[in-house]
Design goal:
- This protein is α/β, with parallel strands linked by helices.
- It has three domains: 127 residues, Response regulator (Rossmann fold, 3-Layer(aba) Sandwich), CATH 3.40.50.2300; 165 residues, 3-Layer(aba) Sandwich (Rossmann fold); 69 residues, Helicase, Ruva Protein, domain 3 (Orthogonal Bundle).
- It is 46% helix and 13% strand.
- The protein is globular.
Length: 508
C-alpha cells in the first residue's frame, strides 16, 4: 500500500501520527513544509505517491491551504485532511471549498484521527478502482458482419458530439462501444466516466450523479463531486439507463437541456460540459408506454441509436475472442498463455453464451487459472458450459446423455430428446431425470458430498466449504485481474474478509 504523507512543522505531531498509523499497519512519510511535499510529488510515481495527504494549515515556508490547492490541481482524487490548531470558521470553509476530505482541529483525539485517515484510505482505494476501470480499454474484435456494421457506425460518429443510445444484451460490450466513441471523438483528451445506474441504490444514485455538499444527509461528512462534474469536458456513459428511477429522470433531462445542475443539499448551480452516451438492454419504447420512462427523456437520448449484436449472433468471432482473452488473461497474471483444442473451441462455438462476451472473457480468466494442462480440452471447460465428464461425478451419474448444438443453458432437456441428437460433449442426468446444463456444478457438488458422507469423515461441511470458498475467491480474483478490493465488492464481502480468507485457505 502507498504511504500516508504527513506534513507538519511540529515534530511531536508527526511522531504521534507515525506511531499510531504504524500500529495500524499503515506506512507513512513525513515532511516539515509544503515546499518539500511539492518537490516529492514531482518525482513520485503512481506506486510510491501518497495514498492520503494529512497537512497542517500554518507552517513556515507555506500554507496548507495553498498546498491543498496545488495538490488538487494535479491529483484530483487524492484525499487531503487539513489539520490546524487555529479552529476558526474561515479556515474550515476554505478547506472544504478547496476540496479537502476532512477538517481536523487540534488537539485531536488520536483514535478518531486514525479512524478518519483509514476512511480516507478506503475512499482513495475506491477512486483507484474506478480509475483502473476507466483507463482499461480492451480491444474491440470482430469479423462478423454485424460487428463490421458497428465499426462503421463508430467511424461515422468519430467527429461528432451527438448523443448516442447503445442497445444490446447484458455483457455484449456496450461500454466498449461507448469508450470507442469517446476515444475517436473530439473529446478524446477529456475524461471518460462510466456509471451503471442499475447497480446503485436509488437513495445513493442522485448523489453519485450530481454530487453532494457536506452535511446534505447522514454520512455526508465531506463535499463530493458527482459523475457529471468528474466528466466535465469529456464523456459520461450511463449504463442501464432504462432502470433509472423516474424522479431522477427529470433531473437528468434538465442537465441535458441546459448543462446546469445542483449538488444534493447545494444552492448554487454547477455548470458542466458533458457528452452523454446511454445504454440499455431493455425496450425503452415499451417502458415509455408503461409509464416508467419519460418520453421526453427518451427522445433526448435517442438521437443516434446503435445496436450491438449478442455473441450468439456472431459465433464466427468466438474462436478469435477466446484466443485473445486467453492471451490477455495470461499477460495479466504473468503466466504462459494456454492453448485451446479444436474440440474445446467447437464446444464453445455451440454454447449459447447468455452472458455474451463478458461471460466468454470470464471463462477464459477461469481457464487460465484452473485448467490443469497447457492445452485446454472440453473436459477442462467450466461447469456452466455444460461439460461434465470423468471422476467422481461420472461414477455417481445414472446416465450420460449426448447433447449437441447451442442448447439453452437455462432449460432442462428430457433424456430421450437428447439421446436423439448426434454425439458431442456430455451433460449428466441423474436417475433418468433431466438436469439443466447451468446446474451441472450443483450435480458435481451433490456427488462429491455423497461420496464423502459415505466415509467415516466428520468434517464434510468444513471440507466442502473450504473447496467452495477457494474456487469462488480464485474465480473472483481472475475476473478482476487480481484486484482484491474489487473482487470483494463483486462477492459482496468485506476487504478484510477476503484478505483473511486468502490467508486461511492458503491462496497467497
Amino acid at each position: 500500500m502507498k504511504p500516508i504523507w504527513i506534513v507538519d512543522d511540529d515534530q511531536s505531531i508527526r511522531f504521534v501520527l507515525e506511531k499510531a498509523l504504524l500500529r495500524e499497519s499503515l506506512p507513512t512519510r513525513s515532511f516539515t513544509n509544503p515546499r518539500d511535499v511539492l518537490i516529492a510529488l514531482e518525482t513520485s510515481t503512481d506506486e510510491n505517491g501518497p495514498q492520503v495527504l494529512v497537512s497542517d494549515i500554518r507552517m513556515p515556508g507555506g500554507s496548507g491551504l495553498d498546498l491543498l490547492e496545488k495538490v488538487k490541481a494535479k491529483y484530483l482524487g487524492l484525499p487531503v485532511i487539513i489539520m490546524t490548531a487555529y479552529s476558526d470558521l474561515d479556515s474550515a470553509v476554505s478547506a472544504f471549498q478547496g476540496g479537502a476530505f476532512e477538517y481536523l482541529p487540534k488537539p485531536f483525539d488520536l483514535p478518531k484521527a486514525v479512524e478518519l485517515i483509514r476512511r480516507a484510505v478506503e475512499e482513495s482505494q475506491r477512486e483507484e478502482v474506478a480509475e483502473e476501470r476507466m483507463t482499461e480499454t480492451p480491444e474491440m474484435l470482430g469479423q462478423a458482419p454485424a460487428m463490421q456494421d458497428v465499426f462503421r457506425a463508430i467511424g461515422r460518429l468519430s467527429q461528432s458530439n451527438v448523443t448516442v443510445m447503445i442497445t444490446g444484451e447484458s455483457g455484449s460490450g456496450k461500454e466498449l462501444v461507448a469508450r470507442a466513441l469517446h476515444k475517436h471523438s473530439p473529446r478524446a483528451n477529456g475524461p471518460f466516466v462510466a456509471i451503471n445506474t442499475a447497480a446503485i441504490p436509488k437513495d445513493l444514485l442522485e448523489s453519485e450523479l450530481f454530487g453532494h455538499e457536506r452535511g446534505a444527509f447522514t454520512g455526508a461528512q465531506t463535499m463530493r463531486r458527482g459523475r457529471f462534474e468528474q466528466a466535465d469536458g469529456g464523456t459520461l456513459f450511463l449504463d442501464e439507463i432504462g432502470d433509472m428511477p423516474f424522479d431522477l429522470q427529470t433531473r437528468l433531462l434538465r442537465v441535458l437541456s441546459d448543462g446546469h445542475f445542483y449538488r444534493v443539499g447545494g444552492h448554487s448551480a454547477v455548470k458542466t460540459n458533458v457528452r452523454v452516451i446511454a445504454a440499455t438492454h431493455q425496450n425503452l419504447e415499451q417502458r415509455v408506454k408503461e409509464g416508467v420512462f419519460r418520453e421526453d427523456l427518451y427522445h433526448r437520448l435517442n438521437v443516434i441509436r446503435l445496436r450491438l449484436p449478442a455473441l450468439r449472433e456472431r459465433k464466427e468471432d468466438v474462436s478469435m475472442l477466446t484466443r485473445h482473452f486467453l492471451k490477455q488473461s495470461a499477460a495479466q497474471l504473468g503466466v504462459e498463455p494456454k492453448r485451446i483444442s479444436d474440440a474445446a473451441l467447437a464446444w464453445l462455438g455451440n454454447f449459447a453464451f447468455p452472458g455474451n462476451v463478458r461471460q466468454l472473457e470470464n471463462i477464459c480468466h477461469w481457464l487460465t487459472v484452473m485448467a490443469p494442462a497447457q492445452v485446454i480440452e472440453p473436459k477442462d471447460l467450466p461447469p456452466e458450459v455444460g461439460v461434465v465428464t470423468g471422476g467422481l461425478t461420472e461414477a455417481l451419474v445414472s446416465g450420460i446423455t449426448p447433447v449437441y448444438a447451442a442448447l439453452d443453458p437455462t432449460q432442462s432437456y428430457a433424456p430421450e430428446a437428447l439421446a436423439a441428437l448426434p454425439a458431442a460433449p456430455y451433460v449428466p442426468t441423474f436417475a433418468g431425470a433431466p438436469v439443466p446444463i447451468a446446474e451441472a456444478w450443483e450435480a458435481g457438488l451433490e456427488a462429491a458430498a455423497a461420496a464423502l458422507l459415505a466415509t467415516d469423515r466428520v468434517d464434510v461441511w468444513d471440507e466442502l466449504t473450504r473447496r467452495f470458498e477457494s474456487r469462488l475467491i480464485v474465480a473472483a480474483l481472475a475476473a478482476t485481474r487480481g484486484r482484491r478490493i474489487e473482487a470483494a465488492q463483486k462477492l459482496g464481502i468485506g476487504r478484510n474478509t477476503i484478505t483473511r480468507k486468502i490467508q486461511e485457505l492458503g491462496l497467497e
